[in-house]
């Protein structure tokens, strides 16, 4: 598909502007550093796996079937063909500015029924929800009114300023003669 000259020229002009802008920022290292620090990327919370609460672990009883365990804990994150009698539940939460939370629970079966569980200490649902809300901070509300000391830094308005209710001056009369729009032909 042929490219028209106008689109190629437009593309070249955009690239040229980008190069000039980049060179300008590189030349002003202090400005570039301030711009780079002012612009911060949005970082998302990364949640992987199944959250298992202490209440769910307490509901597990030896002798339960696989389906009963799956109804309480959900689908395991890892189950291996080589270890069919073991299910792995792993939970990881990565949030910007907060330490990574990682928990693991392994459920062991023997002849299709729950034998035992091993893993980390699981928090209650209330504790987990409380740990999520610690990230949210109240923004600082700026002071919206100037104090008398701040107002004194600015000079008072001159006394010659027109009052708000004063009438505006009369406009000047339009010119009676206008120059020609085109130059005369020779």
UniProtKB/TrEMBL annotation:
Region (Disordered) location: 136-186
Aminoacyl-tRNA synthetase is among the record's keywords: no
Highest rank taxon of the organism: Bacteria
Similarity annotation: Belongs to the BamE family.
Quaternary data: Part of the Bam complex.
GO aspect biological process, one term: protein insertion into membrane
Outer membrane protein assembly factor BamE domain location: 49-117
Keywords from the UniProt entry: Cell outer membrane, Membrane, Signal
Low complexity composition bias: residue spans: 161-180
Keyword presence, rRNA processing: no
Location in the cell: Cell outer membrane
InterPro entries named among the record's database cross-references: BamE, BamE-like, BamE_dom
A single MF term (Gene Ontology): protein-macromolecule adaptor activity
Name of this protein: Outer membrane protein assembly factor BamE
Main location: membrane
Pfam family, any one: BamE
Gene label: bamE
CC per GO annotation: Bam protein complex
Function, in words: Part of the outer membrane protein assembly complex, which is involved in assembly and insertion of beta-barrel proteins into the outer membrane.
Organism: Pulveribacter suum
């Amino acid at each position: 598909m042929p490219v028209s000259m106008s689109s190629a020229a437009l593309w070249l002009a955009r690239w040229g502007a980008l190069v000039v802008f980049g060179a300008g920022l590189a030349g002003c290292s202090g400005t570039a550093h301030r711009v780079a620090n002012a612009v911060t990327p949005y970082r998302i919370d990364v949640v992987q796996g199944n959250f298992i609460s202490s209440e769910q672990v307490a509901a597990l009883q030896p002798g339960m079937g696989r389906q009963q365990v799956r109804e309480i804990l959900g689908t395991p994150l890892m189950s291996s063909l080589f270890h069919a009698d073991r299910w792995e539940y792993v939970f990881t939460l990565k949030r910007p500015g907060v330490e990574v939370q990682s928990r693991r629970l392994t459920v062991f079966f023997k002849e299709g029924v729950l034998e035992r569980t091993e893993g980390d200490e699981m928090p209650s649902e209330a504790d987990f929800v409380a740990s999520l809300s610690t990230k949210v901070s109240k923004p600082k509300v700026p002071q919206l009114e100037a104090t008398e000391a701040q107002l004194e830094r600015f000079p008072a308005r001159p006394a010659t300023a027109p009052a708000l209710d004063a009438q505006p001056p009369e406009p000047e009369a339009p010119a009676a003669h206008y120059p020609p729009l085109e130059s005369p032909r020779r």
